[in-house]
Specification:
The protein is about 70% helix and about 10% strand. The protein has about 280 residues and is mainly alpha-helical. It is elongated, with a radius of gyration of 25 Å.
Length: about 280
């Protein structure tokens, strides 16, 4: 049976494919750079969705000899590649949009492009809400990246709607302006996704609140007298934690070992933590 993350990724793929087809057909038919830019934004989302499906499948593979702590890093790697692609597409469409401002190419506009954009806004809003919910539940960087991209697409499509609307009223220059605004939205979304996924790949530490929760839970375990030298870092999208616990120096080795295992089990119950390394300090 497909996992929830995989089902969500497949839903994103087919939704983006549908949006690309209708936007590119209508955009080319009326010569609107704003709608064509939005269509290529959806094409980029299709590529990202394929990468998401692949990375989710890889990340769910069990640990093996060459990846002894699992394959969770596959998701942030896919998110970073998506961010790079977003930057390339965004800058290319800025160049094209400037050319369309200098020489507008919008043809006669009817109500069809407006309908396409409204469908896009509604569908992308639903995708944003769903991706954000699943991404937080599953702690999936690549699905959370898709949620950011979806809300940016809502903003981009709104700019396309305004640009085409003003072109409809006899101001075709605003189609190119809309294209530039959409390009900036694409670049901004890529930056946000890159920033978040670099944090995973660079092994960023857990925040102060989580570390405080780790200490509090550890100190509640019987025979733990204190905690020192607590460190954490991301491996993929989950944390590895190293913690030194202080126990009575007069305890025998087996008892001290059992205390350490109890701490490990308790802390690995955190949904954000994948692996805990416990060091025993006799005091």
């Amino acid at each position: 049976m497909l996992s929830k993350r995989l089902r969500t990724s497949i839903f994103g793929l087919f939704s983006n494919l549908f949006l690309f087809i209708i936007k590119i057909i209508v955009g080319l038919s009326i010569g609107s750079i704003a709608l064509i830019s939005d269509a290529f934004n959806s094409l980029m989302d299709i590529i990202a969705s394929i990468a998401t499906i692949y990375s989710v499948r890889v990340s769910q593979q069990k640990a093996d000899k060459n990846h002894q702590f699992g394959h969770q890093a596959a998701e942030p790697i896919a998110g970073l590649l998506y961010a790079i692609l977003a930057g390339v597409v965004g800058f290319n469409f800025i160049k094209e949009s400037v050319a369309r401002i200098i020489e507008p190419t919008v043809k006669i506009i009817d109500l069809l492009p407006f309908a396409v954009i409204i469908v896009t806004i509604v569908l992308k809003t639903a995708m944003y809400l769903h991706f954000r919910k699943v991404g937080k539940e599953q702690r999936s960087p690549v699905i959370l990246a898709s949620s950011i991209d979806s809300i940016n697409d809502v903003i981009a499509s709104t700019f396309a709607l305004i640009g085409i609307g003003l072109s409809f009223l006899g101001y075709p220059i605003f189609d190119g302006i809309g294209g530039i605004l959409i390009s900036f939205i694409i670049i901004k979304g890529g930056y946000q996704i890159a920033r978040d996924n670099i944090k995973y790949l660079m092994g960023h530490a857990a925040d102060e609140k989580m570390l405080a929760d780790v200490i509090q839970k550890t100190l509640k375990i019987k025979h733990v007298k204190g905690v020192n030298d607590l460190r954490s870092h991301y491996v993929g999208n989950l944390f590895h934690v190293e913690i030194h616990i202080e126990v009575d120096k007069n305890l025998d080795t087996k008892t001290s070992h059992d205390i350490g295992k109890a701490v490990q089990r308790e802390l690995e119950s955190f949904k954000e933590i994948n692996k805990v390394f416990v060091h025993i300090d006799p005091v």
